[in-house]
Every structure is written in C-alpha cells, then in structure tokens.
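Incident review: delayed structure delivery

Summary: a single-chain prediction request sat in the queue longer than the usual turnaround. Root cause was a stuck worker, restarted by the on-call engineer. No data loss occurred. The affected request and its eventual output are reproduced below so the record is complete for anyone auditing the incident later.

Affected input:
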Amino acid sequence: MRYHAGFAWVDGRVATDVLLEIDGGRFTAVRTGVPAGDATRLPGLVLPGLANAHSHAFHRALRGRTHDGRGSFWTWRDRMYAVAARLDPDSYFALARAVYGEMALAGITTVGEFHYLHHAPDGTRYADPNAMGHAVTAAAREAGLRITLLDTLYLTAGVDGTPLQGVQRRFGDGDAAAWAARVDGLRGDDRTRIGAAAHSVRAVPASQLAALAGRAPLHVHLSEQRAENDRCRAVHGCTPTELLRRHGLLGAGTTAVHATHLTDDDVKALGDGGTGVCLCPTTERDLADGIGPARALADAGSPLSLGSDSHAVVDLFEEARAVEMHERLTTERRGHFAAAELIAAATAHSALGWDDAGTLAPGRRADLVAVSLDSVRTAGVDPAGAVFAATAADVTHVVADGRLIVAEGRHTGFDVPAALRDAIRQVTR
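Output delivered after worker restart:
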C-alpha cells in the first residue's frame, strides 16, 4: 500500500512530496521529495493519527441538552447520571460505536475510554462482570479505532468517604481488591490495551490508592474543581496532587486529567516525575471549570495530551487551538505554544500506552489523517499553521493501522450520523 501527500507532517515540520509505504499495518518507508508515481494521492496536509486521551463515550448523549440556564458542574452531573442510569451493554455498545465513528471522522485513531459504568444500575454485577467494558472495546473495533480501556476505580461519593448512592452504585466494586480482580479478567490485543484509572480523590479513599501503584497507563481526574481541592485539604491536609505523590502514583506512567486548579508546588511535583497532563479545553470551558496552567506544566516537564472528555464537540484541532487561546486569555499575551507543540499533544498516543504510534516514520503504526487545505476554513492557509485554522470537518481521509476507515469525509463502515441519532434517542427518550 502506497500513499503520496503533497504536504505531510514529518519530524515535527511540514515536508513536501511525501511517499508513505505500508505493509502489515505499519509504515515501511517514509520518503520526502519524491514523485507520486502509482501511489494513491491524498489531498491537503497529512498528519499522524490523532489520539483522544480522555473520553466518556456516553456523555455524547448530553450534547445540546445541558447548555441552557446557569447551573454548575454539579447540576450538569445530575443530568449525566440520568443518562448513565439508562445504559445496558447493548445500548452502550450502540452509543459508543457511534461516538467512536464520530471520532474517526475527526481524524482520531486511538481513544482512551475512562470507563466507570461497570455494573447494572442497582450495582449488581452482570453475568459477565466486564460486560460493559467488553461492549466499549467491541464498539471501538467496529469503528476502526484502537482503544485503551482505562478501567476506573470508583468507591466513594466524596473525599470524606460518603457511600455511593443511586446510579453511582453501578460504578463501584466495593473495594480496590474486588476492582483489581475484575480488571485482571480483561484481556488486550493488538488493538486494545487495558489500563487503569482512579476516578479522583473524591472517589478513591486514600487507604485504597496503593492498589493502583504499578499499573500503567494510569489516569486520574485531578483538581478539576476547586471544591475537590478544598475537601481534600480538609480531610487529608494536602492538595490532591500531594495525596497522589504520597501514595506513589505520580510519574511517567500516570496522566493527570484536567489539572486545572494547581498550586506552584503541584505543578512542580507533576513535572519533576514526568507525570503527563491531559487537557480537555472544550469540556473545561463548557462546564465553567476554569483554565489550567498548560504552559507552566509543559515547562515543568509534564508531557501534554488532549481529550474531548464530555464531547461537547469532538474536534482535536479545536482542543489543540484552545490550549494556546486559553493561555492568551489568562496572560493577555500571545504566542505560548508553537504549532509543533500543539500537534504533538494532539498525537500523544504514548499517554495511552501506544508508544509505537503518533508519528509518520518507518516501523510505526500506519495511521494518517488527510486534512483539506481548500475548505472555506483552510483555503490560503500555510500548511505549517493549519492547526490554527482547520476543524474536524476538514478531515477527508483517515487510515488506522493501514486500514482506510474514512474516505472523502465518510466513514467506510457505517452511517455515523444515523447511528448517533438512533443510539442517543434510545437513551434519552
């Protein structure tokens, strides 16, 4: 299989006349400055596949339904719980498949699913205790994506140990040992990785955190809300970051999601150990959570990744752009992140344990995304600056592991808009 791109992102810059040869789902050659010959020509700018490092697939059903009125993160959460209560393995498969199809159309080739819908709504286990997880991984496979299932430890409703109530009971396994036993029954493959997550310091008592040590990739919601920080200080006498540090959970195998309300010491602790940070700007602003210290975290040594989280939009170009734009709003200055840094964050497959993806290079997984340079958004744009202009709507072709999953802006496997409409109607009517 041979593709040719007039422009392609190679070694952190735009190269011209790039020939990409693929065999066995991997790039065997990436050569610049060569003619197309008989290779299939790709339009626009070709990028590595994008990585969505933080997804809650079922939140997509809330798009356009929770934006009216004032409210807060907590009132939004109540409406999210209402959707969570309606899902079973079949309906979750249908919804996740449709959402992952939307991600494919947006150029995403790997998703990290932060998964805590484990059991039936009343908390009882399905006959297959991982039925919901299996539904999610099967959905990703049908949509053509790789997935890291970040199976999430979720035990309490608050930092003070308040028991899970209502629909929250389906999130819990009782204790960390029972969670670990269930997770250890999951199996990955060439397109599926099994990771772990601590939902937050609200949901995992300090005494249970040690059960997560040594698991990688490990993700955790961190300091998403000021209230979380306040309660953690009241109960533990420290910030959530410091609590994780004390229990050995920071480091290169861990990714902190959001990391919005941090102290200077928190930033240093994350950076010193190389703890990654996943920013989800469109969700963070949709829920009025605040703007995190992205530049300070990167400078401290934390690799950045991006996620669409609640899927207010599914567009990693918008997420990447927002990292720069939010810094501008905070500092009243421009020019904090170069295009290369933003593209690196949007293609950070290593945050999900896929170290062999995310670049156009021999031996790497053959993922590529063609982005139109002649739409109304990108016409006349310098290809090197396309990340500041393009949107998900400009993605024309997507190849994942050597397989064409999007052609001419349409998914090759199924009608994504129809699948979304039907799946969302099933869980919201």
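Verification: The domain at 50-352 is CATH 3.20.20.140 (TIM Barrel).
Action items: add queue-age alerting; document worker restart procedure.
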